[in-house]
Amino acid sequence: MRVVVPFAAETPKTRLESVLSPAERSQFARAMLADVLRAIVRAGHEPAVVSTAPLDLGALEMPGEVAAATSLTVDDRPLTEAVNARLPADAGDDPVAVVMADLALATPDALEELLTAGADVAIAPGRGGGTNALAVDHPDFRVDYHGLSYLDHRGIAREVGATLEAVDSFRLGTDIDEPADLVEVLVHGRESDRAPAVLREFGFELERRDGRVAAVRDGGPTAE
Ligand SMILES: Nc1nc2c(ncn2[C@@H]2O[C@H](COP(=O)(O)OP(=O)(O)OP(=O)(O)O)[C@@H](O)[C@H]2O)c(=O)[nH]1
Ligand SMILES: C[C@H](OP(=O)(O)O)C(=O)O
Questions:
Q1: Which of 8, 157, 168, 182 fits 215 for a cystine, CB–CB 3.0-4.6 Å?
Q2: How far is the CA of 122 from the centre of ligand 1 (A)?
């Protein structure tokens, strides 16, 4: 299946600005993108990155076969428009999936569950009501991101007569938006992943205190 991966290349991950500098946010966002692309390719699919600005895929330090399977298009339209331009439009069109670039915990198995769901629209919701990933096999379904997009997408599916399946997945449900989410990257990131390695290079580590876990940097508390 064609898997679109939207990427905000210029000032990514602004909600992490209290803990990461602009250059670090850029590096971290690219590391998560590399991990997501690798998971998609390992699941047997070809990722199509749709970036707001030119991007050097070679600098993402991905395995050769992942880079070879990945295509890149620059599209500076807002997220919803850029995605809708790529969804199936006619009855015979192939299905299309959309997987966000900040799903640092995504694995091939978790993606496969979404990509093989039988419904016209399959959605992996994020905590808080976002739409972290979806697969669309219906010519009339369109996205409307931001806010409570998961509920909005359920409503849109109903309106166009598309069947819908919600995919219950911790790994796809965890998008990395806020400082507290860095804990999840350090706890659940896999050995071969770039994102946890980059956080550790920045000096982040897990610290247990009072029964809770925090991502701390240089000894100081940063993200609980
Ligand atoms: N192509 C494209 N991708 C986008 C755009 N905005 C966000 N994205 C991507 O969509 C996914 C979800 O993004 P968000 O978490 O909402 O935004 P973000 O820019 O990553 O982070 P914040 O600045 O903290 O909101 C990520 O993969 C982003 O890279 C956009 O306008 N165009
Ligand atoms: C892409 C968007 O992300 P959020 O703004 O909720 O992080 C959404 O999931 O609708």
A1: 182
A2: 20
Query: CA-to-CA distance for 193 and 38, rounded, in angstroms?
Result: 9
ipTM: 0.95
Taking the CB of residue 116, how many other CB atoms lie within 10 A of it? 12
Residue 220 has a pLDDT of 55
Q: Report the CATH number at residue 60.
A: 3.90.550.10
- Summarised one tens digit per residue, pLDDT across range 121-171 is 999 999 989 999 999 999 999 999 998 999 999 999 999 999 999 999 999
Structure tokens at 43: 């699941």
Amino acid (1-letter code) at residue 27? Q
Bridge partners of 71? Answer: 48
Q: How many domains does the chain have?
A: 1
What is the distance in A from the centroid of ligand 2 to the CA of 213?
25
How many whole angstroms separate alpha carbon 104 and alpha carbon 94? 27
User: How far does residue 42's CA lie from ligand 2's centre (Å)?
Assistant: 25
Residue 138 zone, left/alpha/beta (φ > 0; ψ -120 to 50; rest): beta
Mutate which of 16, 32, 145, 177 for ligand 2? The one with the most ligand atoms within 8 Å of its CB, which is 145
Residue 139 within any structural domain of the chain:
yes
d(CA 151, CA 148): 6
pLDDT of the residue at 209: 81
202 occurs within a structural domain = no
How many Å lie between the centroid of ligand 1 and the Cα of residue 102? Answer: 8
> Relative to the CA of 5, which ligand 1 atom is closest?
27
- For the CA of 149, the nearest atom of ligand 2: 10
Share of the chain above pLDDT 70, in %: 97
